[in-house]
Amino acid sequence: MYNFDYRRPHSVDEADLALKGLPGAKLLAGGQTLIPTMKQRLARPDTLVDLSAIDGLRTITRSSEGLTIGAMSTHASVAQSADVKTALPGLAALAEGIGDPQVRHRGTIGGSLANNDPAADYPAAALALGATFKTTKRTLTAEQFFKGLFSTALEENEILTSITFPAAKRFAYAKFANPASRYALVGVAVAETAAGVRVAVTGAGSDGVFRVPAMEAELAKSFSAGAIATVKVDAGMLASDMHAASDYRAHLIGVMARRAVIAAG
Fold first, then answer.
1. For labelling alongside 176, which of 110, 117, 235, 256 has CA 20 to 30 A away?
2. What is the CATH topology of the domain spanning 168-264?
3. Virtual torsion, Cα 33, 34, 35, 41, nearest 10 deg
């Protein structure tokens, strides 16, 4: 690991000022990706701005807009929150399935979404539910936020502060996990909200999380596993690696989507 400066602000305003005044600085949330890459000398930030002392980024609240989760809320706190379990039990179940207990008590929802790992779980939930992302500069929709593999709309001096998930008539997430890492080889989120039915896939896309309009159209007509039994996803748009070939991922999308529909229904 290379030498670096370290800052630990106690408010969002302090973090914002630190980030703007230190070119080359990186935000530290749970550190589940950044710290390992620094240890391997694959990342060399001049300064780390640690967000862990900002209590206001850990709140989880229900309102007329839906469920708002602070960006520094850990996976464990999302999984254990009474508000999440009541408003979106499928999201609590998703959080409970991330990594192992150590990861769930250190990793954060904001860090995961800002990193936008193509095999992460939260992006599928955010895209399927039509979540909105609040930052120190603006509010973004899920479609505006996700830009591709490990890429988001966040600018260099912009901090993600909270994510709001709208109320859902039904929502569930199903994944086929890598047995070692618990990352999704394929994960499918299915949601029905006031905006309609949406299906989002993580772990499979060659360009990150994506929606499946053909499944959405069929589920809008009949919300049942049988309605999407014959819907296929083009393997040509999917990733192929040492863990799973693209045609196998295409098959898994159908299986996981049907399981999510059954769980949601």
1. 110
2. Enolase-like; domain 1 (3.30.390)
3. 110
Distance CA 222, CA 230 (A): 14
CATH 3.30.43.10 for the 1-53 domain, yes or no? yes
Q: Cα–Cα distance between 130 and 126 in angstroms, integer? A: 6
Q: Does an H or E element contain 108, and which?
A: none
Amino acid at 62: R
Per-residue pLDDT reduced to its tens digit, 119-178: 999 999 999 999 999 999 999 999 999 999 999 999 989 999 999 999 999 999 999 999
Closest Cα partner for 31 from 139, 101, 106? 106
The HSE-up count of residue 62 (CA atoms within 13 Å, CB side) is 11
Q: Token pair for residue 73? A: 């809320």
Phi first, then psi, for residue 158 (nearest 5°) are: -125, 135
Query: Both tokens of residue 226?
Result: 């049988």
pTM metric for this prediction: 0.95
**Which residue spans of the chain are classified as CATH 3.30.390.50?**
168-264
In the chain, residues under CATH classification 3.30.43.10 are 1-53
Distances (CA, A) of 239 to 174, 186, 262: 19, 10, 26
Model confidence pLDDT, tens digit, residues 196-228: 999 999 999 999 999 999 999 999 999 999 999
Q: Residue 15: how many CA atoms within 13 Å on its side-chain side?
A: 26
Those residues whose C-beta lies under 8 Å from the C-beta of residue 128, and which sit 6 or more positions away, are 171, 173, 189, 190, 191, 198, 199, 200, 211
